[in-house]
Structures are given as C-alpha cells and as structure tokens.
Amino acid sequence: MKKLYGVLGNPIEHSMSPLIHNDAFKRNGVEGDYLPFLVEEDALEKAVNGLKAIGAGGFNITVPFKEKVIPYMDELDPFAKEVGAVNTAVIKDGVITGYNTDGPGFVKSLAPLIDHLFSGKKVLVIGGGGAARGIYCAMAKTEAGRVDIANRTLSAARKIVSDCHNGKPSDVLSLADAEKSLSIYDIIIQTTSVGLSSLNESPISLLGIKEKTVVCDIIYNPLKTKFLREAEDNGAIIQTGVDMFVHQAALAFELWTGISPDCERMRELVLEKLGG
Ligand code: ATR
C-alpha cells in the first residue's frame, strides 16, 4: 500500500518538495505519495498526530514550524536537539522521531566545492536565525579550523555559539566588523533573509573577499542574489540555495526509505521549476 508523506508549513503553495520527492519515489520504485499541507499554528499538534494516526511514513516541516513542532515529537535525534529545530520527521511503529537535515545537507552540498577538505578552513556564517543555527552547528562538527558568526543582533549569534559550541574557535562579529575581515575566510555562508525575493539587497558588501573564496547563499529565490553576484564579481566560487535545498531533501528521503536519491536529478527539477 502507498505510504503518505508530506510537508507542513504556512505558506506552503510554492514548496518544491512535493515535486522532487514524488519524482524520487517513482524513480526508485517506492510506493509513496508526498503532499503539501497548509497548517495553521493552532492546528499543528493535530496535524502531526493525524499523520501519525493514519500511518504516514514521515513528513517535512518548514517555515514557520521547525521549532514549534518539537514538543509533538516522541523522540529527537541528538543533532536536532542541539540545533533546536526539526525539518524532517520519521514515523515508524507509531513513534515519531524528529531530525534536522538542513545543517548536514548544507555540509554535504559544500563538500564537492572544496574536495571534501574542510580541514583548517576558516568559515564565516552570516545570520543568527534558525537557518544559521543549523548550518553553524553542522559546520562546527567538520574539520574546519574556525567557524565565526556575524549577525545584526549580536546576542542571537552569541546564543547559537553557546548552545552549539564544541571547542572549535568561534568569534561573534557585527556585520560591519565581518565586512572588514572578509579576506581571512575560505568559506562564507549567507543565511539571513536579506536578498530574499529582491535583487537589490545584501547583508554585507563582499568587496574585501579573497579570490576563490567559496561563497554560498541559502536563498534560491532569486537564484543569484545580489550577495552572490557581488561574490562572483570579486572572484569567488559561488553556490546558490538550490544545493542545500536538494541535499536536505535527499537526506530526508534516505531517512524515510533507506535509499540515496539522485541529487543531480533533484537539482535539475528544481532549476527547471525556477526557470533557471
Ligand atoms: P530563518 O529561520 O530563516 O533563519 P529567522 O530566524 O527569522 O529566519 O532569521 C532571519 C535572519 O535574518 C536573522 O539573522 C536576522 O537578523 P537579526 O537576528 O538581527 O534579526 C536577519 N535579518 C533579517 N532582516 C535583516 C536586515 N534587514 N539586516 C540584517 N539582517 C537581517
């Protein structure tokens, strides 16, 4: 019998998760159906329990519920607990377990750009929200030499470092200070909402980066943000938000089915849908 999967969020109509997961089910011969579910905040608990009651296989959780869904999980994967956000739930034998594949998905997406050589790399994460938290925690577990974090609100960045700190050198910087020391970084990751649905906004200027810095933006609408265009103009190797999106989805698919889907195929589908 077909298993039900889906994504809970609000808004949800533009989610590309149904497209890539349904395609992956088909291509891998898995009996699954993946649907978008628009959920109001006060109905989140009922939605989660309803999926559990009908024997769904699992689901994704997106904005604005990644933190709010935690109390409705029966169990939490240690990394999701550390990050304090769940984007993937697995339902097995009536037990719902919450995972976070955003951070590990991002690290996986980055690996080919640096030949898997995180060793000694100096990393800057820009942002202090939920996305920054997942990426910071996952990057702090790599071999990177240091992972600094810059945000408009310093206290939010400090909280991330104190919650996820694992002994790796980490400075908390203002956006202005980060701008002045960009040349020391090998990898710069933009996780704020600045530049989303806009071609003219960027959280910092990238004039000071060194050539061949790997610069990533987790935004994929627009595909090439002002931040990435400026990075490219200054000699960076850039990565758009599509790659993180695809890799977090691939890890979720793997948790549900035990199968690693074809990430390149997922990427093509998303790019086609974005018109790029
Ligand atoms: P998400 O869960 O997607 O990370 P979020 O938790 O709302 O979203 O976080 C948004 C991030 O964008 C934060 O780092 C926020 O900075 P603050 O912590 O100072 O609020 C950042 N951000 C949003 N608007 C910004 C702006 N105009 N300038 C700089 N940073 C901004």
The overall pLDDT average reads: 96
Largest sheet: 6 strands, mixed
Number of strands: 12
Shape: globular
Q: Roughly how many Å is the radius of gyration?
A: 18 Å
Helical stretch tally: 10
Strand adjacency order, main sheet: 2-1-3-5-6-4
Q: pLDDT below 50 for ≥5 consecutive residues: which ranges?
A: none
Residue share in helices? 25-40%
Structural class: alpha/beta
Topology as a string of helices (H) and strands (E) = EHEHEEHEEHEHEHEHEEHEHH
Strand content: 15-25%
Topology:
Elements: E1 3-9, H1 17-27, E2 32-38, H2 44-53, E3 58-61, E4 75-76, H3 78-83, E5 88-92, E6 95-99, H4 102-110, E7 122-126, H5 130-140, E8 146-150, H6 154-164, E9 172-173, H7 175-180, E10 187-190, E11 214-217, H8 226-233, E12 237-239, H9 241-257, H10 263-274
Parallel strand pairs: 1-2, 1-3, 4-6, 7-8, 7-10, 8-9, 10-11, 11-12
Antiparallel strand pairs: 3-5, 5-6
The structure holds 2'-monophosphoadenosine-5'-diphosphate (ATR).
2'-monophosphoadenosine-5'-diphosphate is lined by residues 127-132, 151-153, 156, 191-194, 203.
